[in-house]
Design brief:
mainly alpha, F1FO ATP Synthase, elongated
Length: about 80
């Protein structure tokens, strides 16, 4: 296999698989937060704060995957 093609395939797999986890995590997190808000609307502040923190951590993992894919592609 051509080294350039191998790098492109590796970069594609890195970002593709690296975005899968955060995507699932964000979906599950938002689903459970909406479920919790439906059961206890008075706790909206605490639920929203924890949900936003969780979303930020999930997004950070997706950004790490992007950085790894870019390093694979250009180095």
């Amino acid at each position: 296999m051509d080294p350039v093609a191998a790098k492109q395939l590796a970069a594609g797999l890195a970002i593709g698989l690296g975005a899968l986890g955060p995507g699932l995590g964000i979906g599950i997190l938002a689903s459970k937060a909406m479920e919790a808000l439906g059961r206890n609307p008075e706790a909206q502040g605490a639920i929203q704060l924890n949900m936003i923190l969780g979303l930020a951590f999930c997004e950070a993992i997706g950004i790490y995957a992007l950085v790894v894919a870019l390093i694979i592609k250009f180095v």
